[in-house]
Amino acid sequence: MNKFIKLTLLSLLVPTFVYSCSDNSSNLRSSDLNQGSPEVNISIDANELGDLIPEDFCGLSVETGSIRKNNAQYNGYFFSGNNKQTLQIFKNLGIRHLRVGGGSVDMNQEEPTFADIDELFSFAQNSGVKIIYSFRLLNGNIEHNVELAQYIWNKYSEYIDCFAIGNEPDWNSYHKEDPEIVDYPTYLNKWKKFAIAIRNVIPEVRFTGPNTGSNFPVTGAKDTNYNGASWTVNFAKDLKSTGLISKLSQHNYVGQDVEALKLTPEQMIQKMLSSSWVDNEYSTLFNATLKPVLDEGLPYRLAESNSFSSGCEIGSTSFATALFSLDYMHWWAKNKCSGVNFHNKQWVLNAPITMDKITGDLLIAPVGYGIAAFGLGGHGYVLPINVNKDKNFNITVYAVRDKNDIYVTLINKEYGDDAIKAAVSISLNRDVQNVETLDLLSPNNRPDCQDAMLGGEKITSVEDWKGKWNLVSDKKMKFEVLPTSALIVKITVR
C-alpha cells in the first residue's frame, strides 16, 4: 500500500469480531431459500490440462515494519519460528508465500535489525514459505542495501523467492520525496543502479519489480502513461534481457480507496459480489498490463492485493470478502498469474489476520476463509469448463485437477431479498469413483455477517482446522449452492 495513503491506519486495531448476525441488523438479507432454483449446467474436459497453479500461489504481503519486534502494539515478533499462532494461521490458510515490503520499506523510520531478520527467516524455515524481501529505494543507501542483501543471502538464500527494491514508485509521492526520481526513466536508472550493486556481490540473485501501485494506465502519477503503457509493461520491456528479474510484480486494489470514494458498507459489498468486477475490472488490468508482460516472456505476481486499499466497519470485515478472495484467486490463477499476496497491514480493516485488542490473540477475518478455501480446491492444473446458465444469475465456476482429483469451485454471489440457491449439474468425461463437498458459509447466508465457516468449522490460530468434506453417497453430480455461499466439489476419478 502506498505509504502516503492512510498512514494513520497503521496503529488501528480491529475490534473483536461479533460472531452473530441478526436478521434485523441490515437490509442485506437472503430470503426464502425454497424458491425455484435456476439450473447451472457445467461440462468439464478432465483431459485438457491448462496451466499448473504454483504451490506458493497463496500469499500474504506485509509491511517491512511488521517484522520488527513489538510493532503496531503486537507483543513480541509477529513473524518468528517461535510464534505458534502465526505459524498455525499460515498452516490453516495454506499460505506458502510472503512478501515483505509495502510503503514502510521506503519510509524514513527505524529499519529492521539483523536480529529482526533472523526471526523472520526462522519463521520461513518453520512455515515453509518463500519470501520476497524488499530494500529501500526512496532516498535509499546502496551500501546499506548491499550489506543487508549479503547477510540475508549468505544465511537464508533457500527461503528467498527473489528480492525487490522500493514500493509503488509510480505514485506522485515518489517524485516529491526523492530528487533522483522524477519520472519513469529516472526511476529505472536508479533501480538498475541499486540492483546491479547487489548483483555484483551476489551474481545469482534475481529481483521482482516494479511493484507499481497504479492498476493500469491512469492519471494518478506522473508519467504513468510513459510510452503509452504502464510502468509495469515498460519495466518488463526494459529489463527482460538483463537477467536481473525473475518475475514482474503488480499491485491491485480492485475497488480503490473506500474513504476517498465515500463508499458505504452496502456499496462495498455490492461491488465485491458484483459480476462487473469479474467481467470488467480484472480483465481490464490483465489485458492492459499483465498480458503484455506475459507477451514479453515474463511471469507476473500480484504481490500486494485486496478488495479496497482502505476499509470500514462491516464492509471490510464482512463475509462478502471471503467470496471475493476465493473468486479473485481463482480468476487470476486461470489467467496465468504466479500468485496473489493479500496485504496484511497491521491493523487495517481489510487484513486477513487481525488481532483481538484485549487478549492479543490473532484472529482470522472472513477474507482469510476465502484464501483457505482456494488452498483446498486450487492446487493442480486449471481445467477448461463450459457453463450453461441464465446470464443474469451471479455464479462463477472454476475447475482444477491434480493427479487423481478434480476440484470444482462454485460461488453463488446472489444475495438480498431475492437471492435463491442454484441447482448445479456437472458432467465429466471420466468415470467417477468418489464425490465429496466442502462449503463456505455465513450465518443466515448474509453477506454482511462478520463471520464465516469452512467445512462446518471455524479457523483459529490455536489448533488445526477441523473442517470436514462431506461424502456424496450416490455419486450423483447434482448439487445445491445456497445464495451468498461457495461449494467446493471434490471428484475422484479413475
Explained architecture:
With 494 residues, this protein is α/β, with parallel strands linked by helices. The chain has two domains: 123 residues, Immunoglobulin-like, CATH 2.60.40.1180; 324 residues, TIM Barrel (Alpha-Beta Barrel), CATH 3.20.20.80. 27% of the residues lie in helices and 23% in strands. It is built from eleven helices and 21 strands. The strands form four sheets. Strands 2-3-4-5-6-7-8-9 form an eight-stranded parallel beta barrel, surrounded by six helices. The chain is globular.
Q: What labels would you give this structure?
A:
494 residues; alpha/beta; Immunoglobulin-like; TIM Barrel; seven-stranded antiparallel sheet; globular; disordered N terminus
Show the helix and strand layout.
Layout: E1 39-44, E2 58-63, H1 84-93, E3 97-101, H2 114-127, E4 130-135, H3 142-156, E5 160-165, H4 172-177, H5 184-201, E6 207-212, H6 231-239, E7 245-253, H7 258-261, H8 265-272, H9 275-295, E8 300-306, H10 320-334, E9 340-343, E10 353-355, E11 362-364, H11 366-377, E12 381-382, E13 385-388, E14 395-401, E15 405-412, E16 422-428, E17 432-441, E18 453-454, E19 470-471, E20 478-481, E21 485-493
Parallel strand pairs: 1-16, 2-3, 2-9, 3-4, 4-5, 5-6, 6-7, 7-8, 8-9
Antiparallel strand pairs: 1-13, 10-11, 12-14, 14-15, 15-21, 16-20, 17-18, 17-19, 17-21
Helix content: 25-40%
CATH class of the largest domain: Alpha Beta
Structural class: alpha/beta
Task: Give the count of structural domains.
Answer: 2
Instruction: Say how many strands there are.
Output: 21
Q: Taking strands numbered 1, 2, ... along the chain, how are they ordered across the largest sheet?
A: 2-3-4-5-6-7-8-9
Mean pLDDT: 89
- Major β-sheet annotation: 8 strands, parallel, barrel
The CATH topology of the largest domain comes to TIM Barrel
Q: How much strand content do the residues show?
A: 15-25%
Fourth-level CATH superfamily of the largest domain: Glycosidases
CATH architectural arrangement of the largest domain:
Alpha-Beta Barrel
Show unreliable segments: 1-20, 22-34, 216-224
- Radius of gyration, in angstroms, nearest whole number: 22 Å
What is the overall shape? globular
Number of helices: 11
Terminus-to-terminus distance? 46 Å
